[in-house]
């Protein structure tokens, strides 16, 4: 939360211990799980039998959000990504039930194939046309958790300001909740408790890439991340391995 730096000092009450002893490695602490858990559990209230659609599903937040939905008992989890390789990755390595390549045909038509009765939960990190498609594909009383607008941040234009079909939203009685995650003690504890348990039970994996090179490598790593060259979380190693 304090920018890219090798060391940080501050008041003791602004830091907290992390349970590295119950994790496979220290890098497992550096994840986007608090955001994914808060949005999927507290905002979307995902549960048994839900049909879930996650955009940006191969990214740091989306890859964990989909797994959280499965661990919570969702019946079907569908993820969107920008290549056939990433779609295959979602299904074969992360345990998603289906994947959609948003560059390969209309998202709404692909959703109709995998969720013919509609989606109950939508976890959105992208915005743009995928948000518009989710409104049309939603089942009655579906819950939307809006986490980000990657389409607008990366592709520009109006992708960060999708059109809302208000009449459809009214008829279906959609709950649409944008949210931010402030990493409160309660949010940290909730994620930490379930994260360690699900890892131990084999219900979750932590998709990540580690890049060596220290702080100087961070700008190029971020640029490559935004261009879609990596999957999951991207970590830059500050010191020697």
UniProtKB/TrEMBL annotation:
SUPFAM superfamilies: NAD(P)-binding Rossmann-fold domains. Residues 10-236 form the Enoyl reductase (ER) domain. It comes from Arthrobacter flavus. InterPro entries: ADH-like_C, ER, MDR_fam, NAD(P)-bd_dom_sf. SMART domains: PKS_ER (SM00829). This is Zinc-binding dehydrogenase. The lineage of its organism: Bacteria, Bacillati, Actinomycetota, Actinomycetes, Micrococcales. Signal peptide: none annotated.
């Amino acid at each position: 939360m304090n920018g890219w730096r090798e060391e940080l000092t501050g008041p003791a009450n602004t830091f907290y211990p992390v349970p590295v002893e119950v994790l496979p490695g220290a890098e497992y602490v550096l994840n986007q799980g608090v955001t994914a858990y808060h949005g999927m559990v507290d905002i979307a209230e995902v549960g048994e039998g839900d049909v879930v659609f996650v955009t940006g599903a191969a990214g740091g937040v989306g890859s964990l959000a989909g797994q959280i939905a499965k661990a919570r008992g969702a019946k079907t989890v569908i993820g969107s990504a920008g290549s056939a390789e990433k779609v295959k990755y979602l299904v074969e390595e992360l345990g998603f039930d289906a994947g959609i390549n948003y560059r390969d045909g209309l998202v709404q038509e692909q959703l109709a194939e995998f969720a013919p009765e509609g989606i109950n939960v939508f976890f959105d990190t992208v915005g743009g046309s995928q948000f518009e498609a989710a409104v049309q594909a939603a089942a009655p009383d579906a819950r939307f958790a809006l986490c980000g607008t990657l389409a607008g941040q990366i592709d520009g234009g109006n992708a960060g300001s999708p059109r809302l079909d208000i009449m459809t939203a009214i008829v279906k009685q959609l709950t649409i909740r944008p949210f931010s995650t402030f990493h409160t003690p309660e949010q940290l504890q909730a994620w930490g408790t379930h994260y360690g348990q699900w890892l131990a039970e084999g219900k979750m994996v932590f998709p990540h890439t580690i890049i060596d090179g220290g702080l100087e490598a961070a700008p190029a790593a971020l640029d490559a991340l935004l261009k879609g060259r990596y999957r999951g979380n991207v970590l830059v190693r500050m010191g020697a391995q």
